[in-house]
Amino acid sequence: MMKAEELNKGFVNEIIEAGTPVPGEKEVASLKSCYQCGTCTGSCPSGRRTAYRTRKVIRQALLGIDSVLDSDDIWKCTTCYTCYERCPRDVKVTEIIKTIRNLAAKKGNMATPHKMTAVYVLKAGHAVPANDDTAKLRKSIGLAEKAPIAQFSQKDMDEIRTIAKNLKFDELIGFDWKTMGLKQ
Ligand code: SF4
Ligand code: SF4
């Protein structure tokens, strides 16, 4: 049973507001439509392999249990959108989870594997950079070894890094420009 002091009544609205960048948009407001049927959990590929339960995260958000921001579970969602497609109440589950993650990241709680993905974006312009295998594969089907992507364009990389600095994204993930990795 959850103790009363662990419930943050304003937290539900905080999630809704954080996920509603355009006035009048109700994407994350769908949170309040959840009737806890569990279809999302039953559909979730991550839940099959881990203790992550989508319905539980939505329930915590609905009840204003802000400790969900400290939970490892919110980082186990692969954003596959299966729950989003299958929810009988049209709850925008994946958007809600992403909104909760954004709030958690602002608190300094971003999971390390996600930070590492962001490191690749700052280092190479992509979460999954091209490598030697990519080059070989492209060559084998008659394509240029290097695709016309940000990774191979200094101008694009400069723009990505400028945007990251202006938005303080580098600070958010704890990026070290000297080592081009995470700060130790
Ligand atoms: Fe709530 Fe939709 Fe998940 Fe059912 S499938 S528990 S209504 S979010
Ligand atoms: Fe599970 Fe996330 Fe996919 Fe929903 S979007 S089914 S929570 S992995």
TrEMBL record:
Gene3D superfamilies: Alpha-helical ferredoxin (1.10.1060.10). Belongs to the HdrC family. Residues 24-54 form the 4Fe-4S ferredoxin-type domain. GO terms for cellular component: plasma membrane. Pathway: Cofactor metabolism; coenzyme M-coenzyme B heterodisulfide reduction; coenzyme B and coenzyme M from coenzyme M-coenzyme B heterodisulfide: step 1/1. Its EC number is 1.8.98.1. InterPro entries: 4Fe4S_Fe-S-bd, 4Fe4S_Fe_S_CS, CoB/CoM_hetero-S_Rdtase_csu, HdrC_iron-sulfur_subunit, Helical_ferredxn. GO terms for molecular function: 4 iron, 4 sulfur cluster binding; CoB--CoM heterodisulfide reductase activity; metal ion binding. Keywords: 4Fe-4S, Iron, Iron-sulfur, Metal-binding, Methanogenesis, Oxidoreductase. This is CoB--CoM heterodisulfide reductase, subunit C. It comes from Methanococcus maripaludis (strain C6 / ATCC BAA-1332). One of its GO terms (biological process) is methanogenesis. It comes from the Archaea. SUPFAM superfamilies: alpha-helical ferredoxin.
